[in-house]
């Protein structure tokens, strides 16, 4: 198996298996679980949940450095599978953070993604 990223993105995969949980239901459950175990004041919990994103992004950086062997003292300590897993942690953490700010995460993210897509498509067509 090749541990290096491929220059082209992988082919799209088929949809999730029929028995897989809904993404947003899972995010709601994670949010509920975190809130149920929270012992901090609401504002402090909110800020710490946002800061958790920085921690996860740092773990992506650590995995990339480890996968490329950029630290001569340590050598290669991670694989690109580790990087992918850390990126997934960033996505999940961001989605839970968004859920912390609004119960309407699906609509907020869908609308934001639509705007980003429109800007990108306009740029490709020379409109911006």
From TrEMBL:
Composition bias type Basic and acidic residues, residue spans: 1-11
Residue segments, region Disordered: 1-24
Lineage top rank: taxon: Bacteria
SUPFAM superfamilies: all-alpha NTP pyrophosphatases
Annotated Gene3D superfamilies: MazG-like (1.10.287.1080)
Record's protein name: MazG-like family protein
């Amino acid at each position: 198996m090749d541990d290096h990223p491929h220059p082209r993105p992988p082919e799209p995969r088929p949809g999730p298996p029929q028995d897989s949980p809904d993404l947003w239901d899972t995010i709601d459950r994670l949010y509920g679980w975190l809130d149920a175990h929270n012992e901090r004041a609401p504002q402090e919990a909110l800020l710490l949940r946002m800061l958790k994103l920085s921690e996860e992004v740092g773990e992506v950086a650590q995995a990339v450095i480890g996968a490329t062997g950029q630290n001569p003292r340590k050598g290669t300590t991670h694989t690109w599978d580790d990087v992918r897993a850390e990126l997934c942690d960033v996505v999940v953490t961001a989605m839970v953070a968004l859920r912390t700010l609004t119960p309407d995460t699906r609509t907020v993210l869908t609308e934001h993604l639509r705007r980003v897509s429109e800007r990108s498509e306009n740029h490709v067509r020379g409109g911006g």
